[in-house]
Amino acid sequence: MAQLVQQNPSWVSLLLDIAFDVDDPISSRACWVLEFMVKEHLPFIFPYVDRFVEKLGLVHLDPSVRPMAKICEYLITSYFLKSSTHTRNVLTSSHLEKIAAACFDWLITDQKVAAKAYSMTCLSLLGQKFEWIHPELKMVLEQNYALGSAAYKARARMVLAKLKSL
């Protein structure tokens, strides 16, 4: 399905409509397709980035949150690559703040570890742009560390070590 969307980039709009019908279980499938499409062709989501970040906080089904968090990781990682001026031209400070808010929500709510891990990556990078993020991220990770799974703890240790070195 992702290949079909890649061959017809105008379908991204329809896919977003389905993905953001957040109470319908089929929306999770649309989120997965979006993730696979964005992995291969990140620029295909650029014309729709306003809608994507505006509705990001509405996503709540477990199978939908993980791919949306991964899409955020793709966007933020690309934004902070030195060679990726196109992504920096598309994502505004407002977009970045909304992604940060969604990532913090996923980090502090009862989500699967993958969504939390992707959120940690996004927030550690976004802290380079917004100085308030790193202290908040550190606090959240330290508070939730004892209750986290082994995978959560491993990623949290890695992010905390990176934050300490900054």
**How would you sum up the major sheet?**
none
Structural class label: mainly alpha
Mean pLDDT: 95
Low-confidence stretches: none
Sum up the structure in keywords.
mainly alpha, 166 residues
Topology:
Blueprint: H1 2-7, H2 12-19, H3 26-40, H4 49-55, H5 62-79, H6 85-90, H7 93-108, H8 113-126, H9 133-144, H10 150-165
Helix pairs in contact: 2-3, 3-5, 5-7, 5-8, 7-8, 7-9, 8-10, 9-10
Describe the protein in words:
The protein is mainly α. It is 71% helix and 0% strand. It contains ten helices and no strands. It has helices at residues 2-7, 12-19, 26-40, 49-55, 62-79, 85-90, 93-108, 113-126, 133-144, 150-165.
Summarize the structure.
This protein is 71% helix and 0% strand.
